[in-house]
Amino acid sequence: MSQQGWIKTHRIIQEHWLWNDKPFSKGQAWIDLILLANHEDNKVPLGNQIILIKRGSFITSELKLMQRWGWGKSKTRAFLDMLQQDGMIIKKSDHKKTTLTIVKYNDYQDTQTTSRPSTDHNQTTARLLPDTNKNDKNVKNDKNISGETSSQKFIPPSLEEVQAYCRGRNNNVDAQRWYDFYLSKNWMIGKNKMKDWKAAVRTWEKNNKDKPSTPSPKSFNNFKGREYDTDELKKRLLAKSRGGQK
C-alpha cells in the first residue's frame, strides 16, 4: 500500500557524500532535477541578457547533468526525453542553454508552511530551514544545518569553470585531470573539505613549476647521444662483413 503525504528534503543533501556516489540511479536523478529547480521566480544573467527563470524551472546543459550523475551522453539524453514524453518535465534547448521545467512542481514542493505545533517532541525545538536558491549569488548569514554560514559553504566548480580559470592563468595544469582527481576525492584535501578550489588549482600550478624538467631523449646523465652518419655506418658494416668472409 502506497504511503500518502510528503516529506521535507533540504537541498544540502546534494552535498552529502552518499548523494554524490556515482553513477546516479534514475530515481536519484529525478529527485536531483526537483532539487535543482528554482523555488521561486528568479532573474539570472546569461551573456548580455537578463533571463527570468520561473518557479519550478532552471537552466542547465546535458554536459552538466552528465557530470553530476556520472552518466554518458546517450543515457542522459534518453532519460530527459523519457521524462518529457511522460509529461514529467518540459525541455527547451537553444544554442546557449537548456531550460528544464518540472511539471506540477507544486505537488513536490508545497508552499504551505509546516511550522504548526507538533506532538513529536523531537520536532518542537526544530528550526525551519530557509530555502536556498541555486541561482542566487547573494551571500546570506543564515545558519545552515551544519552550523556554517552560507559564505563558508563550498560549492564544487564545473569542469568548464576550471578550464576557464586555467586558461586565464595560462598555466600548465591539466584541468580534466585536476577535476577528475578531486571529484573522486569528494572534494577533500587530505582529511579536510576543500574551501577554495582556485587555491587548489594554484597549488597544482606551483607543484608543476617545481618539478624538474624531463631529460631530453637524446641525453642520459647529462651525456648527449652520439650522432652517426647512416651512410658511413653502412659502409663500415659492409666492409666488416666482407672481412669476416675471407
Concise overview:
The chain has helices at residues 26-36, 62-69, 73-85, 105-108, 159-169, 175-184, 197-210, 230-245; strands spanning 42-46, 49-53, 57-60, 89-93, 98-102, 188-189, 192-193, 219-220, 223-224. The protein is an alpha+beta fold and 246 residues long.
Shape: elongated
Computed over alpha carbons, the radius of gyration is 28 Å
Please name the fourth-level CATH homologous superfamily of the domain at 1-110.
Winged helix-like DNA-binding domain superfamily/Winged helix DNA-binding domain
CATH topology of the domain at 1-110: Arc Repressor Mutant, subunit A
Q: Which class best fits the helix and strand makeup?
A: alpha+beta
Distance between the termini: 100 Å
The biggest sheet amounts to: 3 strands, antiparallel
Estimated helix fraction: 25-40%
Q: Which sequence of SSEs, written as H and E, runs from N to C? A: HEEEHHEEHHHEEHEEH
The total strand number stands at: 9
- How many helices in DSSP terms? 8
Strand content: 5-15%
CATH architectural grouping of the domain at 1-110: Orthogonal Bundle
The chain-level mean pLDDT equals 77
Describe it.
This protein has 246 residues and is α+β, with helices and mostly antiparallel strands. It has helices at residues 26-36, 62-69, 73-85, 105-108, 159-169, 175-184, 197-210, 230-245; strands spanning 42-46, 49-53, 57-60, 89-93, 98-102, 188-189, 192-193, 219-220, 223-224. The protein contains 8 helices and 9 strands. A hairpin with a 4-residue loop joins strand 4 and strand 5 (98-102). The model is unreliable at 113-132 and 134-151 (pLDDT under 50).
